[in-house]
């Protein structure tokens, strides 16, 4: 490959003769890793014209670089970065000027340092990945997804999808959600009451920005999805964690001055508790009394394989008080980044305006691909297949856990894709996870799910959404063995 | 199509006998447009099992609905929504409960009502679309984009792309930007100094959130990109508009207590002025004196077809003071939503953490498709093709404007894709645009670009990025004619 001449610039501030400047520019390109061994340089004629200097100047610079073994010449085929040229130390320690900016001062608002959990990027290479929320490639219908993507890339769709939608969504996807997805949760909504988001994360973020300010109060399940706690703490509203029980969030424990209640009624995250119908009604009553809003994160309803799911909290809401968060990320794949919000029109209008300001709209091609995948019935088929697989894995897992008397602290009444586990008090699951990782086992320590600074450290989550059935028993054996070693 | 039985729920709060409830549920489904004419209902047996009621109850409900002509029966093939069933009035006026929520109070922060301009969604159907920033399907290399998308959808890529990246980007795209795209602007950057965003809009939004607070001051070009003004006003920082001249932003006019300066040096938006090198240096000096940061929006550098572009402001920045915003949306297509930020590591770290909280990461498939399209050289070829077409259109347009003595107020020294026009003082270009729209001509009134409340109303923008060369003359004729009629 020839290095494009357009990437060569003489720095207007550079010192020295033109020949030196050219020499320096090329050497720095090599040192910084921009130009790599074996790559061809532009001809002297071309570079001279581009830089507006004489050809002899470039030739002398090249000759100097030849002498220093930065370049080699291969006769008529030109100049190349030498195999012996100094390799950049690593990309990370490129020599560069010290910033004159005091970033501690310059940064107006800090966002880093949240509790959000991290998984090894290469989790799929681990033999026993009991991790949550990652797609299992063996279950996903890759062929049909690809066909739907192709259809959405066809000339006719393409012309409409390349357009800037501004604040609009793909009408086909919206229609499908309104007519087919939401009715399965008992929800009726008009297109103006639905907003497509970049996953459930984005839906929760938009909701928080619209509803909460520094003066307002949110109630949050404890334990809960750690990224939600980060979103709320960034919004600087007052947050009260409310400890969940085996039925999920207890309405009576919500402080009376709460403005917004965040809850996960279908599968409490992470305990998997399903809120019974009576409590759902009690929660709505409680919210009505306090004139509070409820944000219902229905992140995993499709994983109900043990029993038909009960209708969403939103379906019981006659007041417009519930904002519903849905997601396709768990059932399709998380890298897709596709979710949605359902709520009253004044709320959706503000969320839409904010979304337009932040990112305009989720990419059109992805929305259309999902619309095809859903409307051609592939999604339903996928959910059935996943249900069967998860049910089987869950059974194997329950047996394996029972065999070692590992204690399950929460299991979904309707299924789900994980168990919430409680280790003996003396076990620190952060340490346990670290030790297990070196043995090929990934588990999720539970500490990050809890609020406050004195979080219990003996909980952990074991998901069965990404691990093949055949490895479950062996993986659980290793966990139990490692735990037995810890005294 | 048979309506899936899962979409049938009995409302726990419903009144009346079970048979009445079922009847009501179906009728409401039809009235709300959820069940449409000709669609098949679940069999009485299936629905009875699903709802946990006796089959005779369902049969009686169906019979009642038959009598009311909501349903028809086709003998053994079952029950269908009748052709004579009452059609939903329109989707928009579905009967629904009045919200008990006072949304004026419940919404903590309002985001709607910004100045952001809107274009007709069906702009492509207009014969003379002098509108800005939309892709021209005749120039885009649809075939190769499709091939790259297919490659990115292949099994190997797919497995890696379906993963949740958390806060990471596609390493292939980052590498290409670092090694090829940025060097063309004279910029050297390490991967840790680059963040992929959902378009330039998202890059500007993230930057604003990280750098500006209610106590800080931003300087903004006037006129400027209206959505940027919205972003800043939402951040509630102090904003000083600085009037640009024919060389862009004048450094001396920037107030000395400014924290962050927003500028578009390569093609000032909307006047197209290119900032000369001397002024770029003066701007950096001025920022250094004040210890201010500069946000350089290089939104259109690829459109330099009259002359090689000068290196970016960022390339002259030894202090780490410049934050660079790049975008592929103008040159590929705006629906793509793909841009990037380049800046010092402490800044990028915060922007990355904020992005993770807001939306995690731009969808992996789109990042990988772009990486292929760029690295296979299709992008460069596209830019060349666009340059040729734009140059030709610009020439035709200049002639047409000259023929009618329409006054150009700003034209890019390096090219660009639009002219900034000044109509006679008595012309209100909002009115003009409305009148022209009914004649098939789309222009952009200039008012929204200006700050304050007494914006000049006689400017407008004429873009040539989406209109075929053959229609330019005719379109300009209509504009001139309409303007001559306005007294």
From TrEMBL, chains A, B:
Gene3D superfamilies registered for this protein in UniProt: Type I PLP-dependent aspartate aminotransferase-like (Major domain) (3.40.640.10), Winged helix-like DNA-binding domain superfamily/Winged helix DNA-binding domain (1.10.10.10)
Keywords associated with the record: Aminotransferase, DNA-binding, Pyridoxal phosphate, Transcription, Transcription regulation, Transferase
The UniProt record lists the keyword DNA-binding: yes
Pfam families: Aminotran_1_2, GntR
Domain HTH gntR-type residues, every copy: 16-84
Signal sequence range: none
GO-annotated molecular function: DNA binding; DNA-binding transcription factor activity; pyridoxal phosphate binding; transaminase activity
Family designation: In the C-terminal section; belongs to the class-I pyridoxal-phosphate-dependent aminotransferase family.
PANTHER family: HTH-TYPE TRANSCRIPTIONAL REGULATORY PROTEIN GABR
Protein name, per record: Aminotransferase class I/II-fold pyridoxal phosphate-dependent enzyme
Organism annotation: Sulfitobacter sediminilitoris
